[in-house]
Specification:
The relative contact order is 0.09. Strands 1-4-2-3 form a four-stranded mixed sheet. It has five helices and four strands. Helix content is 65%, strand content 12%. It has two domains: 94 residues; 128 residues, OmpA-like domain (60s Ribosomal Protein L30, Chain: A). The chain starts with 9 loop residues before the first helix and ends with a helix. Helix 3 links the parallel strand 2 and strand 3. It is α+β, with helices and mostly antiparallel strands and 266 residues long.
C-alpha cells in the first residue's frame, strides 16, 4: 500500500535519516581507508627513498673520500713538482750564465792566443828577413884603435881612425858595424871582460855622438884577453892587444848572398 507524504510519520523520517547517515559513514570510511592507504604508501615509499638516498650517499662517500685524498696527494705532488721545476729553472739559468761567462772568457783567450800567434809569426818573419839580410852583408873596411894600460878612454889617434872609418859610410841605411874589444893578459879575466866591454862602448858612443850613426846599426862585444894579435910576454905585444876592432859591413843590394866575411873566416 502506498502512502502519501502526509501519511509519513516521525519514525519514517528517523529511519531515512539513519540510512543516509550509515551510507555517508561508509563513504567516509572508504575515503579514510583510501587516504590511510595512500598515506601508508607515501610513508613506505618515502622510507624506501630515504633508505636509498642514504645508501647512495654512503656509497658515493666511500668512493669520493679516496678520490678526494688522491686529489689532495696529486695537488701536493703538483705543488712540489712546481717548486722543483722553479728551483731547476733557477739552476739552469745559473748554469747557463756560467757557461756564457766561460764561453766569453774562452773567446777572449782565443783572441789573445791568435794575436800572440800573429806576433810570433811576425817575429819569425822578421828574424828570417834579418838572417837573409845579414847573409847579404859583406866586409867593406876595418879599423883598429889602441888603448893605454887599464884604460877605456879614446886617444886622439883613435878618434882620427874612427873619423876616417865613418867617412867611408856613404849609404846610411845599408850597413852595420861590428865593434869588438880586447885586452892584454894582465889582470883577472872578469875584470878584463868588463874593461874590453867598456872600450867597445866608448867607440860606439863616439860614433853615435860625432857621426850620428844609429845605435841599432852597431853591435859590440868585449872578449877580454882572447884573440891576441901579438905576444903578451912583451910590452909592445901587450900594447897591440889592448885594442878595439871595428868592421864596416855593407849589404849587397843585388840580393845575392855575399861570401863569408873575414870575421867569419877567422
Amino acid at each position: 500500500m502506498v502512502r502519501t507524504a502526509t501519511e509519513i510519520g516521525d519514525a519514517d523520517v528517523l529511519c531515512i535519516a539513519f540510512l543516509i547517515l550509515v551510507t555517508w559513514e561508509k563513504k567516509i570510511m572508504k575515503i579514510r581507508l583510501t587516504m590511510l592507504l595512500a598515506l601508508t604508501t607515501v610513508v613506505v615509499m618515502g622510507s624506501a627513498g630515504c633508505a636509498t638516498k642514504k645508501y647512495v650517499r654512503n656509497s658515493v662517500s666511500e668512493r669520493v673520500t679516496p678520490l678526494e685524498q688522491r686529489t689532495g696527494e696529486l695537488e701536493e705532488t703538483s705543488r712540489r713538482s712546481s717548486q722543483d721545476l722553479s728551483r731547476l729553472s733557477t739552476d739552469i739559468t745559473d748554469v747557463k750564465g756560467r757557461a756564457d761567462r766561460a764561453q766569453s772568457q774562452a773567446d777572449t783567450a782565443l783572441g789573445r792566443a791568435n794575436e800572440a800567434n800573429k806576433r810570433v809569426n811576425g817575429a819569425e818573419q822578421s828574424v828570417t828577413d834579418l838572417k837573409t839580410n845579414l847573409d847579404n852583408y859583406a866586409l867593406q873596411n876595418t879599423a883598429s884603435v889602441r888603448f893605454k894600460f887599464d884604460s877605456y878612454q879614446l886617444t886622439p889617434e883613435a878618434r882620427e881612425s874612427l873619423d876616417q872609418l865613418a867617412s867611408q859610410i856613404k849609404d846610411k841605411t845599408n850597413f852595420i858595424l861590428e865593434i869588438e874589444g880586447f885586452a892584454d893578459s894582465i889582470g883577472k879575466d872578469a875584470y878584463n871582460n868588463q874593461l874590453t866591454q867598456k872600450r867597445a862602448d866608448a867607440v860606439r858612443r863616439y860614433l853615435a855622438e860625432q857621426h850620428n850613426i844609429p845605435l841599432f846599426r852597431m853591435h859590440l862585444l868585449g872578449f877580454g884577453e882572447m884573440r891576441p894579435v901579438a905576444d903578451n910576454r912583451t910590452r909592445e905585444g901587450r900594447s897591440e892587444n889592448r885594442r878595439v876592432e871595428i868592421r864596416l859591413l855593407t849589404r849587397n843590394l843585388g840580393g845575392a848572398p855575399a861570401g863569408p866575411s873575414k870575421s867569419e873566416q877567422r
